[in-house]
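Problem 3 from the worked examples.
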Amino acid sequence: MFKDIQKKLLLKYPLLWNTKFIPMIAIGLLLHLIFFGLGYLDGAIDFSNRNNLDIEVNCILFGVLLVIIIIILWLVNYFKNNSLKSFYSKSKYSLFYEWLQIFVVSALLFTFYVPFHVGKQLHQKSYYSLEETTNRCKTIATADMFIDGSFREREIDSLASGLIDSLGNKLATNQIYKNPEQAVETAASMAYVYKDHITFNEKKYDQFSLVNRNMFEFTVISREQDSLNRIKVQNWLHQDNQAEVKNLMVNYLNLIREHNLATNLTLDKWFEIVYKAPKFDEFLYIQPYLKEYETDESYNNSYIYATKVGNEERKYSKYFVQQDVLKEKYDTVSEAHTDSFFNIEMILGFLYGAFGLSILLFSFRVTSGKSWLIALVSTGIINIIFGIFTAISRAGNIFSYLILVTIFSVIVYFFFIYYNKKNLQLSRIALNLFLWSFIGIIPLIYFIIQEHYLRSENRYNYTSPEYQWMKDYTLHMFSLNFILAILVLFFLSKIIRNWKGISEN
């Protein structure tokens, strides 16, 4: 069956037969299917321990090796026949169609990681719906305020800070310091004064009170919603709403038990050692789980140890819970729901890689092995010479300018030979260099201009809107450049076909 298909392609569609397009597309799709399955397997989450199945690195290495082998076998069969040497193309754009087929095959082989990533993320999303994930993450995040959460900064004393800032400015104005920079640094260091407490609903609490605790952040919950959730818990404490706090603890412990995570906490003990109304500053910390906690009787004290972190003395209880594991697993599910399946930077990188490979193969087909090799060596020599010159001159942008001038010179030289119809041998080398480098013209010009605005920004100490605009639209530039490169190649393929008709002498 496969031989019959190839025979029909040879008779009716010789270009498809010559590039081995159909079998390579089949191999590429099979490769994507295999790596989608491997990615889905890698996306399994074991909520009961720290380690998920992690085969991503091994799969990538295996994929790279497999792609290299496939490309070698493909090229052996592809280079057996060269339509440009056996017969002239029937269509004036058939060279473009040949390149397009090479590019599609290259893109399929280069992007094997994309289905792996999609399969992995799809499996991670499949555990819980977005709504269920959000609710569970809300429980874990808010419960962290009663376990081992960090503390927010104290409030700034605006009055004291203003007075000290004014004093610092006077020090600089009166030139008490001989060095003006020293005066500015002194004023800056004196700029802020912090209160020794925080205020919530007109009531003062210690900086290390539960009321001032942070929550763990999940991507599935917005910053605004995080703030609202935190304020809700603060209001429970402020209003001494014990029922809501206990309900939160029950929901959290249900998650721990559902996933068979280790803890020796009970609702009553947790509430007893943490909920110390009305100031909420005499609580004990719930510590992360360690295996020895289950067997070592030395941990059965009122608290295991006390440690000082900054101005805070942390007193740890004998109770533990695997909250770090729970947060890690649900953070993975949360990111799977919020991250995009397709990363445009990653996709664009693969497409540029496939474009580079396809151009290398295409240029080899339309010129000759000898000229292709000479062009490759010439490219290396040119870059070494320009690199040495740039290092000696110490001019950062000179390398880009030299490369840009060289590209334009090669293009002008090729078209000079093309229109004058002479010196075909040297034009082969020029065509190789032309094909390999024309896609870099727009990025080179773009980054030269961007560097100009950056230098102006540094020189005059201001924020350049032009530089920021170019920085923000770099991805758009590369996307547009890729599309333009394909359009240029479409029209260039006709010129190359006509150039092949130029006499050797």
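Problem 4, a separate protein:
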Amino acid sequence: MDNNDTIFIDNEHVTALATDRITVINPATEETIGSVPDCGPADIDRAVASSTAAFNGEWRTWTPDQRVDALSRFSQAIQARAQDFADIITAEVGTPTTQSIMVQVFASTMVLDQYAAVAREYPWQEQRQGSLGQRVLINKQPVGVCAGIVPWNVPLFIAAMKLGPVLASGSTMVLKTAPETPLHGRLLGECIKEAGIPDGVVNIVSADRVGSEYLVRHRDIDKVSFTGSALTGSIVASICGEQIKRCTLELGGKSAAIVLDDVDLDAVMSDLVMSGMLNTGQACGAQTRILVPDSRHDEIVEALAAAVGALPYGDPTDPTMVLGPLVSARQHEKVGGYLEAGRAAGAVAVTGGSLDTSFGQGYFVQPTVFAGVTNDMTIAREEIFGPVLSCIRYGTVEEAIAIANDSDYGLSGSVWTTDHDRAAQIAGQIRTGVVAVNSSAILDMASPFGGFKKSGIGRELGPEGIAPFTEIQSVLLPA
């Protein structure tokens, strides 16, 4: 059991002042596997003061190339500990061990490596001709001291999405781990130190709601980067609005997969299934609304149900498992409520449809496909965050596009067809930040990722992901 009394400040594991604890439960066994400090104002103040001192200290003298080199070393340090990270995150999240190395760890280092590549070519300073004939220098300065708030579903990956642009830009960050998944934070701090990143540039704390809100409200935080639910994101946005504080929000989704009538089911079924089921459906960009054409409705629903029903699920340490448990008892109960709501509204579970207590322990759910879903049902409107797909019938492509866009969210989407030109034309009419064609991918590591509507504000990844961590300064020089 990992009972840790420390937080990571000034590149050291220091004893927390907090006496309250956060208990960590293995979702497959329901056993306590560790605990960490539940940091309050005193510990948050220490971390913010450290990041403020670092921002005003040696870190400000580092050149962009030096920062990029440090970012690359950070990625390498994580890669060297890949199995350790994967084992801890499997125990915390319940991600099957076969996916943890790639989805939870190497995807994170790919993000860092992509940010390093983008940062080497980023226009940190530009010169242009002024309107009155003078020269103007456009400087991209670091935004300052940042708060990074990470969710539990892919915690290391989301941390990399925030730390990459922080390190590239010359900003600093207090990174707060999710209450459900804080144990890997200790390893992450060790990687920061091994990379030779100066003291205080990245501090890592563990906290629940009180400490998290205190961090967001802290007067010395210049920017908040938050990933999580739309409800919590609205609170973060409100606080930042009150304080005229910069923020980036990557929030929820209720993404639609538009399956066209010419689809080659044999070619795409595996990817179509995993577009909604990856990480046991606990992904913000999961394609959980499957839009099915009238002309092939029964065939597609039957094939989808067979594929989902065949997915092996259970003990995430078993290498034959594709799906694991949900992360917590609270999430388990929540998903169970959605299953009941679906049936009560008239949807039919063509496979699955229930919580699974047959294991005797753990927060397991039967992989589920609902048919007979209409887009006004709760299971089609709200983010379930579990292994539950809803099949919605449509007549024309125009109707499918309308259904896809009839959502409070706009994070991701997909089109499944043999006609890629047709797919691109349809994608341009879908109001989401990313649209994939015949792919389970919800993002591209080198391209901007973020949402329309209630799916968030701002973008991560690519040069568009660095820009929110900069402030733009114009220097007006004589002609």
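Solution to problem 4. DSSP finds 15 helices and 25 strands in the chain. Residues 2-251+455-477 form a domain with the Aldehyde Dehydrogenase; Chain A, domain 1 fold (CATH 3.40.605.10).
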